[in-house]
Design goal:
Length: about 170
């Protein structure tokens, strides 16, 4: 079993709605490299969160978030791979090995209408098998990202809406 050890990066890169904490800013309750100062009373979204590196020992050791500067999480029942990047190293997801891994994930996700989304603070970037698409400030409360396959071209089209409701077909 892996443990977080001195990693606390998710307390920086993720948005925490219950605390009104924006993505990419350290939580005021985080003691960097040590842990949560309000561990017993931390919000539910913190309690239930675990990154992919922590959950899967087959995930490369060098991808430990405190080293890679990226927190990767499975969300929406596996429908989304969220890639949360430390804004102090905003190109960390473009390192060749990491980028190749994200593209492989994008190919797998595309086969089941799933997503791979890079988040850097409020900004979201869809990683698709054939391209990357900058979605702008989509990582904020009330925004939702939808994929839809164009039946004529086979191309995946990405849309950001103002609610979790799916866009009209
Ligand atoms: S990013 Fe992963 S390894 Fe790091 S503290 Fe969060 S859950 Fe633990
Ligand atoms: S409340 Fe604790 S676990 Fe949640 S983001 Fe803040 S420091 Fe991290």
């Amino acid at each position: 079993m892996r443990s977080c050890g001195s990693c606390t990066l998710c307390c920086k890169v993720l948005r925490v709605e219950a605390l009104d904490k924006p993505a990419g800013a350290w939580c005021p309750s985080c003691r960097k490299g040590i842990g949560c100062e309000i561990y017993e009373t931390r919000p539910g979204e913190c309690r239930t969160f675990g990154c992919l590196w922590l959950a899967d020992e087959q995930f490369p050791a060098e991808m430990k978030p405190e080293r890679s500067k990226i927190v990767i999480a499975l969300e929406s029942g596996g429908g989304r791979v969220g890639v949360y990047v430390d804004p102090d190293t905003p190109t960390a997801w473009k390192r060749p090995e990491t980028y190749a891994m994200l593209k492989r994930m994008a190919a797998v996700q595309a086969g089941r209408r799933g997503q791979v989304i890079v988040f850097i603070r409020d900004r979201a970037i869809a990683v698709l098998p054939d391209r990357d698409e900058d979605l702008g400030a989509a990582n904020v409360a009330g925004k939702a990202i939808h994929y839809r396959q164009n039946m004529m071209t086979g191309r995946i089209e990405v849309e950001v809406t103002d609610s979790a409701a799916a866009p009209a077909a």
